[in-house]
From TrEMBL:
The protein, known as: Aspartate-semialdehyde dehydrogenase
Gene Ontology molecular function: any one: aspartate-semialdehyde dehydrogenase activity
Classification lineage: Bacteria, Pseudomonadati, Bdellovibrionota, Oligoflexia, Silvanigrellales
Record carries keyword Oxidoreductase: yes
SUBUNIT field: Homodimer.
Catalytic residues, chain numbering: C134, H250
Family: Belongs to the aspartate-semialdehyde dehydrogenase family.
Top-level taxon: Bacteria
GO biological process: diaminopimelate biosynthetic process; isoleucine biosynthetic process; lysine biosynthetic process via diaminopimelate; methionine biosynthetic process; threonine biosynthetic process
Catalysed reactions, as listed in the record: L-aspartate 4-semialdehyde + phosphate + NADP(+) = 4-phospho-L-aspartate + NADPH + H(+)
């Protein structure tokens, strides 16, 4: 199947990652034509996509109607404005923003976890699929694998989120603050346009705004999205989201309680068998692996897998396990997951049926 694909928000960090994946190494559906959309200031820029020139267009409904599927890597406001109009015309939209993630009629999908929710009957009614938050995606892959075997009772997660989660401005802010530290010895801890306090040589327990119950927006997203994807509306889950001065790759420290007996060895076996996950531990280098002991965010940068390390039992809970997850927040945490969702809909016939409708 050859598809006309649109990337909306094509010049942002997620849009550019989607472009790179489709241009370089994606082995699923074939791209017949790539269309790229961004704000007026970027319109006219030219990219080389597999030896053809693609010119960035300003976001415009008529042009987007020519696509078979669109990946929205923009703010929720843009998604809210354009996606309902495209959906009405039967164009498949994969939304990376939070605009539709908890909408009851919109599947929130990590293909390895709940690809089964993507039936044509469901998508035909409202052809919108949401891609989860960049911390939720790796987390639910691990939780799903382990819930299937050990029956999950509760989860506690702390995130270590890189600045690219806040887009290009986040990356620029860390770069400028770091330079300022070395060049001017400036150690003030003032706010920037992006973060409420200085991020260079610092960490902050704050990703996005604070809600009435004291959780941040990010924490609330992780909790609500995990419950929706795992279809466990009452799962006890605590999240603390922390911004750290790394550029790409989100880490997560996770402690879990299960109903069934667990051992670290059994957990490793189960995780190693789950599509998209890789276990890296003390034995990894012995097996001539490219990693040893554990994986860090910088090592995960540019990789498609979600890595799990430091797997051990804990006596905090009766059947307790603690572990460390890390993945590229721009690839599996964002662009790659959305592209895999499109691929799933291409393979199961949904896109071709939408086109014929
Ligand atoms: C962040 N999760 O890391 C957000 C991006 N969606 O800021």
């Amino acid at each position: 199947l050859e598809l006309t694909i649109g990337i909306v928000g094509a010049t942002g960090v997620v849009g550019q990652t989607a472009f790179d994946i489709l241009a370089d190494d994606f082995s699923g559906f074939k791209v017949k034509k790539l269309k790229m959309y961004a704000s007026r200031s970027s319109a006219g820029k030219v990219f080389n996509f597999r030896n053809t020139k693609v010119t960035i267009e300003e976001i415009q409904l008529d042009s987007m109607l020519e696509c078979d599927a669109l990946l929205f890597a923009t703010d929720a406001a843009i998604s809210q404005e354009y996606i309902p109009k495209l959906a009405e015309k039967g164009i498949l939209c994969i939304d990376k923003s939070s605009a539709f993630r908890v909408h009851p009629d919109v599947p929130l999908v990590v293909p390895e976890v709940n690809g089964h929710t993507l039936s044509y009957e469901k998508i035909a009614k409202f052809p919108v699929i949401a891609s989860p938050n960049c911390c939720t995606i790796p987390l639910v892959m691990v939780l799903k694998a382990l819930d299937n075997e050990f029956s999950l009772k509760r989860a506690i997660v702390s995130t270590y989120q890189s600045v690219s989660g806040a887009g290009k401005p986040g990356v620029e802010t860390l770069t400028e603050e770091t330079q300022n530290f070395f060049v001017n010895q400036d150690l003030t801890c003032g706010k920037s346009d992006v973060f409420p306090k200085s991020i260079a040589f610092n960490v902050m327990p704050y990703v996005a705004g604070i809600l009435e119950n004291g959780d941040t927006d990010e924490e609330a997203k992780i909790i609500a999205e995990t419950r929706k994807i795992l279809e466990k509306v009452n799962l006890p889950l605590a999240a603390t989201s922390v911004r750290v001065p790394t550029f790409v790759g989100h880490g997560e420290s996770v402690t879990l309680e299960f109903k069934n007996k667990v051992t670290a060895k059994h957990v490793k076996e189960i995780l190693a068998k789950f599509a998209g996950l890789r276990v890296i531990d003390e034995s990894s280098k012995l097996e001539e692996d490219d990693f040893e002991l554990f994986v860090t965010p910088r090592e995960a940068h540019g990789k498609d897998e979600v890595y799990v390390s430091r797997i051990r039992t804990t006596d905090v809970f009766e059947n307790g396990i603690s572990l460390w997850i890390v993945s590229d927040n721009l690839r599996k945490g964002a662009a790659l997951n959305a592209i895999q969702v499109i691929n799933h809909c291409a393979l199961n016939g949904t896109i071709i049926s939408l086109k014929r409708k």
